Fold each of these.
Amino acid sequence: MSIKRREFLGTVAAGSAIVTMPGFLSGCGIQSATALSTATPENPFMDWFGVDQPTVARVMSELTSRGADTADLYFQHSRNNSLVLEDGIVSNANSGIQQGVGLRVVIGEQTGYAFTEDLTLPSMLAAARTASAIASGGRVVAPQQFNPLATGNLYTTTVPWADVGVEQKLPVMKYIEKQAKSKDPAIEKVAVYWADGDERVMIATLDGKLVTDHRPMARVTVVVTARKGEETQTGYSNIAAREEFSWFSEDRLSVMVDEAVDRTLIQFEARRPPAGEMPVILAAGASGILLHEAIGHGMEADFNRKGTSIYSDMIGKKVAEPFVTVVDQADIPRERGALNYDDEGNKAGRTVMVENGILKSYLHDQISAKQYGLKATGSGRRESYQYAPMPRMSCTFMEDGPHTKEEIIASVDRGIICETYTNGQVQIGAGDYTFYVKNGWLVENGKVTAPIKDVNIIGNGPESLKRITMVANDARLDTGGWTCGKNGQSVPVSQGIPTVLVSNMTVGGENAS
Amino acid sequence: MRADELKQAEHAIQIAKAAGADDVVATVSQSRDVTFEYRDGALEKVKDTTSQGLSIQVYADGRFSNHQTTDLKPQRLKSFVAEAVAITKALEPDEFRQITPPELFEGRPDIDLDLVDPNVAKISREQRLAWCEAIDAIATDHQKVISATAGVYDGTYGSTTVSSNGFSGSRESTYCWYGSEITLRDQGDKRAEDSFYVGSPHIETLPDAATVADTALQRVLSRLNSEKGPTVKTTMVVDSRAASSLIGRLLGPANARRVQQGQSYWSELVGKKAFSDKLTIIDDPLIKRGFASRHFDDEGIAAKVMPVVESGVVKNLYVDTYYGRKAGLAPTTGSPSNRRVGTGSMSLQALLADVGSGVYVTSWLGGNADNTTGDFSLGIRGHMIENGQIGRPVGEMNVTGNLRDLFSRLEMTGNDVYPYSSTLSPSLVFSGVDFSGV
């Protein structure tokens, strides 16, 4: 923990947020917890954490004893497994269990926070007193009974990951390796990285809600290294979703393998584009990274209530052409960024950030919603019980527009197409944002001519929105395993977009004069 | 030795061996972390937490795996460890997966690294508030300030590692950081923003809070009216703070894992002159009060000072025991400690005067590098260098090239080491760098 914080403070610029494909930056059998008293039988989550309604009420009462506008207890148990296949064998596994409860008190814009990994009453009461110290008012009336809300069904599974053994995953990893190796004699090494996890969350709120959510997640990555003569190139692909084991069908894995092999081999022919400003075509799918960085982060309402975002004074204003509509939507079944409820216990749903070119709504947590006099958009998320929630994206995408991909390519005299990405970052106040293009294409005289690789693209959020001059009708969400980082907290996200033309961006390239 | 942790770690080893493990390494850790954030005249966030964890590495039947948990209840621990052993046995055997040989534990230095300041655990709420208020007073003292957050982050960390083949060792450290993040109104809807934080294991070595806030404010003020600079091939001066992360990128694939997996442009470089004479990088785990100082590494290997690059010649890579065996390389250490980058004699001002014109980079924005080829492209913010001085602020630009090539064109290094990072680098000067802008 301390190392992480030191390095974070030492190296990450102010007001910035990032999105990455982990690993590509130059980076259960659980029984019920200690029984305090008889668990409520109708709620398996209570049982899971070894607490009951009176215990939760007692802790909530202590937590709000010095006043609160909002308060919550966030119980979480997560279990993650990963496996590594390198050089033909699976000889490394990792598993991690994290369990604890985070306790939060909010008064106005002030937050008191503590957590404990010891779910006994004395330990939870001590943490509650620590968190409550931020407040100095009188006791508020805490609920004696919490009302369970209906559980969501966006990512229901029949077999939890805890019940899927290593012996079931090994053949799948071997299959991926074999498929990849067979594609081309230049392929020297194939590595396969498997990750799965189950997360159980129970949130009790000051207004008497009890929200439970079982959140599965899986991600498989294949990395291909090929050699031709003296030259070596590496490429990869991955797929991720809130899914169960049966989702990893041969068809789905084959698509991933083909992508990884294609992306690797094309690099032997790929070059850097010329440096400077030019039109940029964003291919449908993963190019949603543009939305995540150029507008999504700037629309998170914590930055706006503080006035630190470039979008702070733009609600209701025209920011793009009428065919541009940008949405953040959590209730998309089984997507990596999907959520039934956010981490404050609010129903997660659809927020239109830009509608027909007009800036409509920020992404709100409870703190910002109260300040703006609005309803929270269900955007309060946290990495784990160790952190207080803040406004975050879920699945961010642009809806279809009136053009076609072919029209867009034909309209460009000299520019590039961006296809695959490793990471992006944004400066919230200045609006400058970047994304790193791993694979792409040169466009000359309306035709795709040659492959390009390894260029950073930089632009300014509001300026880029204005410069979206064409939007095609082929929108899709990317299936890759994106992770968003903000203020030291990582959460899974999804992103998508149709083929789009941005009339002018700055492309990192070579041969500047 | 931290007695409770030692007992828990030894207990975990016993359970794992009883469950069928041949060899086990167990680490028990505890930490306390306190955050105070203060914004625009009021305390905004207080977070006070203690955390614990156990991690075990299991070797069984020629197989290996590793596991972590925060749930240390005795009955839970038992099933956790038993399952860890079961998972291990379900994997494939790998002759290279072996516990660290005891001879690598030998020669552990016993010098006092001075990583613990007993005063950190005693920092009071009043002291944290006083730092916040001192920072806030300076950070908000400008008419263009929209928002300024003062932050104080302090904590203590301790852990004990024991192995079934004779290793035992403990770590203890404290930290205290404070500083500010400031946003100023700029042209139109734009805001200028920057931050400056200082930290150390020891409170007494920190500069005064008001001075830190003033540095943060001056940094942001210098960003006002930033514009996109030109597309040009010119000299790049990287300031010492930004240089730390560039050195980190350079060294990213300088390890046995990347080399063995065929994903490193460092593969054939050991013993060769690969970079400019001006480049020297020493991995030094024995710096007193260093952020990454240690007596032993993650595998228990005794800490020693290791040259990575000397005058442009590659001397050593980061080699752990597993990938070292696979690649036929002798183990050094698989995990970096502090990195000292060789310094020159000139101040930043003298370097800029010597350069005359070019781009002075103060921070990066996104970008990445391909570990296999070394090709990189990074977003930058900084200033134009005009007549040997810091000129107009620029941003929304990229710098693009190849890391090996870039560091072969390292022309000068400064004498101004940035102290608030485990990578201790001075300002760096590179010739012939491709910038893309207008």
Amino acid sequence: MKIDLITSMAVLWGAIGMFIAAVQAARAADDDRDGDLPRVLTPSRLPQRLDEAPSTVTIIDRALIEASGARRLVDVLRLVPGFQVGYKTNNLPTATYHGLSDEYARRTLLLLNGQRIFQYSRGVIEWNNLPIPLENIERIEIVRGPAAAAYGSNALQAVINIQTGSAAEYPGLSTRVAAGGAGIADGFLRYGGQVGAMDYTLSVSSVGDHGYPGVYDDRRNSSLSFLGEVPLEAGGELKLQAGFARGDYGIQDPEPIFAAPARDFPVTDAFQSLQWRRPGTANDEWTLTLSHNVFHYGDRGFLNDQLLPGVTLRFDYDIQEERYEADAQYLRRFSDRWRAVAGFGYYHEAVRSPRYFDTDATLDNAVSWLTGHGEYRIDPAWVLNAGAMLEYASLSASWLFLPRLSVHYHVDNRQTLRLAYSTGSRQPTLYENNGRAIIRGVNVPLTIYGVIASGGLDPEINRSLEVGYHWQAARNQFDVRLFQERYSDYIGTYYRPAPEVPTMLPGVVLDFANDHPLTVRGLEAQVDWRNPSGTRLFASYALTAIDASGTRFDAGYEDSAPRHGIGLLVSQEFGNGWQASLNYDYQSGMRWYRDQPIDGYHQLGVRLAKRFKLGSTPVTAELIGANLLGPVSDYLPSREWDRSVFLRFTIDH
Amino acid sequence: MGCGLLVLILMMLCAQARAAALLFVTSSDSPEHREFLARQRQWPAGADMLALEAVEAQGARLIGLIVWLKSAPSRRKSLPPRATIQALIRAGSPTLADLCQQVDVVVAVAEDAARAAEKICSIPLLMVLVPDAQLQPLLEQTRGPARTAIYQEADPIANLRLIRELLPNALNVGVLVSPRQAGLPSLRTEAHRLQFKLEEIAAANDEEAVRALRNHIGALDAVLLLPDLQLINAWSLKPILLMTIRQMVPTFGGPTADYVRAGVLAAAVPDLDRLPAQIVAVAQRLAGGTVPTPAYSEATRVVVNPTVASVLSIVIPATWNAHAQ
């Protein structure tokens, strides 16, 4: 057999988002030190070795996802040092890095295969309703620290890049079913095949449970996703991605200001993305991506005629959002010493919600950006990274220059020291800048205000400095870093008098304003270690301290991140298809932004798995238990996750 | 007794007087095989050679080379001298059938030539640079008197040893195995000797290979690709390399150096510069009436993808750099 090298390499490297395969083949013979093959792709958009990336990165691979027994992507983040995961309701999981967030965490950027497709004008990530099944996620790169130099807005604290497998990796039919306590009932079906030159994968999934015990917050998240890859005759590849997800939720407000009945509502999320990747004639590559997504939060609320005598009020939480994005990127290898990537892009987001904006009109925001990053190898031991983004947002009518610089020193083949400075930014959301949350009277002309945003907000900026040490030997690695993050213009909330309008709370409305600077300092360490006997250990530790002594608002910033956090996952292969894993998570006491404090908690989960054949059909059976040390409160003290056990079967037909 | 001895000596002198003739043929459409044939012209030392720019073979377009080995006697007394063959060439494109009448052994380089020679020539045939997968059916269906081969691929055992050299601490080595796979007992023995735990991952075809490997990849320290095109081919190589590189599991082996260029970490492959020595040795035995069993190339070289090695943080010994590709 003859391998078509150029095609093979281009498709291969392209599928994992890397740079110029054909060139690699051509120059591989004389390159004995470094290559364009990525260890990580996310920090700078330039494929880089993990120890030469300008940010600290945690990599969660497929094996860790499986071993964790997680049913939701967001729970995997409990392993990542410095991350906090919490569920104010079962329908509203949230994840933040270094605290400073409420249940609508919006300071972390989520990417799918490098594309920003899941965050809309509110900046919130709908973790439950991602149109990508967990089963199709092969790797997650988490950039711990700001990365606005590469991604701009929302890359304030961290960037999470979900990477799915290539369509060719999922041939044939696979199914997975799970059932157990707490109403867990999940199903997953995937088929991969070829049509002409296109490899494709079509996946359907449905995941549901009863949520918190005794609370009406059931959920059923169903999704359909498609991935197609077409190699082009001229070289390069066309990648099509599309997904649709629908969440059917029950809701019972945890802390109702008004008597809110338990109710059901849907949330839908859909996206389409087309990416064209074309290797150039030399050491370069073009990538052009177009994407579109729509989001609809369909909670039509309820009517209330008890609050005001003779007045029927409508509480309507409906939100519709839509975004278009275009992104072009060019990578070039100038020499063995230096490589660079440059890109520009534009996205337009629009939101319509009479409830949150007191208007039937659609509000919009457009962001344009220009980015560049270069990696220069001074000599075999020293590597320099420099990059920046120039971003303009129509909402704030401001230009932002967001630089990054890092220096890496290879002590030897395994050890590297780094010093990195980076910036993050977050443009104010439309709601923070223009929000006017209201309740309208149905039978009388009455509008009551809960939020009136004064506007004029400046973007939040995070300036981060870190010193790190990285050790790596084959697949074993250890990383530790000391960091300081200085947040300017943090957008906080406060109540201000509003005598001119009827208000939900007596005489006041909620408003947004930039706060004075606050500082987060800490230490983070992670280790990923395997031994030849089939043991794998992934462990992390985070020490976080927030200094908010000079802030305007008494919002409890200092307590918004746990001082200590530990994540641990141990898995062991026993032979004959048996595998067991144990995951443990500890967070010391904290308090989500402007919410009630929660005590420190320990979580323990176990998973026992057996692979076997049913006839000629490979089957994996798993018994998974969560919260085995007892009830856990990860957001509100009054809401506790109970122990749960479920069975899961995976069948490759 | 004395008379008999004299006759024998005379026979030997006659035989020595006529050197064994080998006919190399390969497809004229394959530049790499043309190059390989051109390489044969550089030796053996003192051999008499005659290039054939075109050889008719029932529609197949071949080129050829005849080598008279002075060191090996011909057993075919009726062979004509070189002048006869030259006359044949002058008369137009010689046919493979005609040429096979004039030589002791045919050496068919690559699959097209092997198929043609197997069908047309009834003299001893040595097939080289033919993948194991294509060679097995040819050897099984052959009607000729003496057919043997040198596999295109290196012995998988050499790749197993390569894994041990590069990964001294590795334990679990995954190997995708199809029902028709032969040679596993020797691989198992060598794996045991090298203190590997050989994880045999059964798959009936390339699709199953990808799926089966996916289920095992997390527990493996390395993956060994056997030369089985049913499982490892241009289609399956892509997802296999994607998942192994992503999981930081190095992959070894494959039939040719092309696999290494595509992303396999390292492989032992036949050393084409030294292969002719083995070809001549086998051809001489064939010419002498012995039919050796098909064998792997005795001379191998290691090819390494340094880019993949860098990604996987695997240190390639400095002394290997000369062989890295």
